[in-house]
Design goal:
Blueprint lengths: L2 E5 L2 H13 L8 E5 L10 E4 L5 H10 L5 E5 L7 H8 L6 E4 L17 E5 L2 H10 L4 E4 L13 H11 L8 E5 L6 H17 L4 E5 L6 H13 L3 E4 L5 H7 L2 E4 L4 H11 L6 E5 L3 H11 L5 H5 L3 E3 L5 H8 L2 H14 L3 H15 L4 H9 L1
Parallel strand pairs: 1-2, 1-4, 2-3, 4-5, 5-6, 6-7, 8-9, 8-11, 9-10, 11-12, 12-13
Length: 371
Amino acid sequence: MRLIAAAGDRDGWQHLEAVARALPDGGRESLALCRAGLGPIDGIPTRVLVDDAAAQEEVDRAMGGNDVDAVLLVTSRTGPDPLTRAAARGCAGLPVFAIQEYWGDPLGVEPVDGGALRYLVRDELAAKLTAARQPLADVCATGSPKYAAYERRDIEAARRARRAELGAGEGDRLAGWFGQAPLAEESYRRTLEAFARAVAARRGTKLLYRPHPRESPEQAARSLRTFREAGVEARLATSGETWQWIAAVDAVFACFSNCCADAAHLNRASPRPLNAPAFMLFDEELRAYHERATAMSQPPLATLGLALLAAQAARVGEVVEEALDPATAGRHWDAARRMLPLGSAAAAAVAGELAQAGPAPRDARARRERK
């Protein structure tokens, strides 16, 4: 089977890389189109898009020079980029598969000339949300392929190494705060202050703070100062990969960062319990922002029971205490193993869906040749 696969951001690239490993031919007969800076996808011939204006030209060249059977895209939290739009519009009657990065997100652009669109989503909650928002959509729950990379990581070694850097032994309690992209600064400050007071109340608990990639050094310094002024022993973690710091902590705290989802899937791939994810989403302004951004009243992981949620300020201390209890990590590890497919299984499920599409119909090929 010959695919055109397009990734406009790193999450999309990770999904495509995992699926390529699961394709029967390793993707050798397919073609990947990626944004500059993402690098080639192992096993698939890759063209790098360096200019948004050239997106349609790149897609047309790829479509015209290849006997293409289907198109594989990935949704993005920021909506479709020029590469995604160009690939969807250039499919000319071919089946289009969209791996959904976040629960309920639409691809944002429809295929043309009768091309069928099939969403490949994380779980049944995502399937339900997508069906409600896209009533005509064809939806299949496959799991999230990008997390297959966790299965190739030495999670326990990373945990030991990062904890040693912070002077935290296995008997110590280490909380992790994973920053949010800059938004609603006063609301975010209130959230940090309430969270810091709850951590400070637990004598001896250390805090690791991993800023969001879009937090400026000045914003990160303000957040670190908020923690320390509350009496928390806090350390800034800016080196290495985020998954290593998630593995290191005993509880993953955030407003509504995807790091909580990463923590659940890292738990799934780990041979033993790591931590429990917990959302600090009790400030009215932040809750309203989250609802506008996701069209959901609370983070999906909390709905599924795979993460804790402090939805009221009065419960912050209680949720922090519960999240840092080793028994809670054990329960969340059990839940992840019960409810989440491994990333490799998700990638295999996506590859299976692609294989079922079969070769493109002759009329689709003819329509593409006429364009």
